[in-house]
Amino acid sequence: MAETGKGMGKTLAQSLRESGVSRRGFLKFCTATASMMALPPSMAPAIAQALGKAKRPSVIWLSFQECTGCTESLTRSHSPTVENLIFDYISLDYHHTLQVAAGEGAEAAREAAMRENKGQYIVVVDGSIPLGNPGYSAIAGISNLQMLEETVAGAAAVVAVGTCAAFGGLPHAKPNPTGAVSVSEIVKDKPVVNVSGCPPIPTVITGVLAHFLTFGSLPELDALGRPMAFFGKSIHDRCYRRPFYDKGLYAETFDDEGARKGWCLYRLGCKGPMAYNACATAKWNRGTSWPVESGHGCLGCSEPDFWDAGGFYNALSIPDSDITRQAVYVAGAGVALGAVAGAVNRSKQARAREEHEPVTIDDLDKRP
Amino acid sequence: MSTPVDFLLWVRGPGFDIALVVFIIGILIRLLEVLILGRKPDYAEPRGGELGAGLRTLLTRTLPEPGTFKRSPFTVVGGYIWHIGFFISLFLFVPHIELIDATIGLSWPGIASNLVDAVAAVTLVTLVAMLFSRLTHPVKRLLSGPEDYLSWLVTFLPVMTGYLAYHRMIDPYPLVLGLHILSVEILMVVFPFTKLMHAFTFIIARWYNGAMAGRRGVQS
To answer: Are the C-beta atoms of B190 and B20 separated by less than 8 Å?
Structure first.
């Protein structure tokens, strides 16, 4: 990794062959990628051809206000899965956590990669950027904002990995002490892809990179800048527990009969209806499971402001305040005001009765 | 209020609080100011019981009167369809039951969500047809004032936005869910001060009609 742009001359197919990956394994990866990106199977050979010819792009990975969970997630794309291969065969020229070089050497690697691949390299960002005091988060004495602006200037595209980089995430949660913002709030003149999630699914980030290598462009994005192929449908729509929602069968607690039978977790606070992600289909830990399958509702971690969107264990439809107590107080006030209104009406009635003057036929005759 | 989630949090937080205060206080004032007024004591010897007749009339006035049905079947049938559809959507959809449970601690089983979805679709179509009839039928049009159209609108919007939210037809979801909750809050605020109060006062009116007739020994 210290060797900037190592292997840039070789194509991806050459690199894979040299490290013992069979043509068959490579084609399997291409088919999987095609299906993940919701492309027709007939696209797989085209992807294979394009990827085979693709040069390993230089990737600069910037980590700002983050917890390294995104990197943890990506490195858990278990060997020898093809995600790992793709990851090995991009030229990851700068990554705090994964690179060997430190200090000035590390920064020199970043600068060299930027210089040698100007206009070609991909910047991956995890973590949000503090706009408050620059000292809240700095690397080698360079503030996050400055490093992002400087690195993105010569980039082909930017991939914001994780909810912090995509939408501000946890640092952005109220009261946002550092003035944290997302990448797209700063980078306006380059294409930005948001791969949100806390953390994001490993295959989604490799899928985005594969798309870039295959087509030389970024995938179709939704309104929040996320790849449609992965974020086009809600967790709720893809959830295997959805039939129970439709039938009206819900777990009431985490250990009741409904929970054991795998019923819908809506009442336990599942945010599946508002969350868009590929968890239900891509799953986690080599396709082992995903949060809802493990018995816990979705937290909606791929959505903006998920941390502030009410309690994780409150059903989506429930107000946040203590409305029962409030309703009792308000009812008390209502009864009191109603009694006052009633009393006013009664006194009006009594006054009307007192002031009532009987009118006779003679009186009417007298009037002009 | 800068993001859809902020908007959702507002309608689910302060917005709902405000609507609930107006709704509960408004309804109690409207009911109590009538009930406290009372009636003049009736010194005549009663010729029959009030209770049975009152309860019977509550039921009989809920059923369509044959003459009315013959004269305007569309109004009667349409009225039933959307009222029943509205009640099913409101009280048998699980997320709504969840809200009622959180508010007053009462809970009951819901029905299948896609069944509610179908009922809501029928309700929507019927409500539009009812409005169309109101606008085109010369007598109904003459009888209708701004309050009638306002009542229709604040009833229609929660069903429509609920349908949009269920099918996530507006992106992002927090926005459409927020719009749905907001439309219900508007309904709650408008409710006590318009003819929508009939949802509560119909009980008093029908019972009183029946009880009065029962006391006099006549058919109500």
So the answer is: no
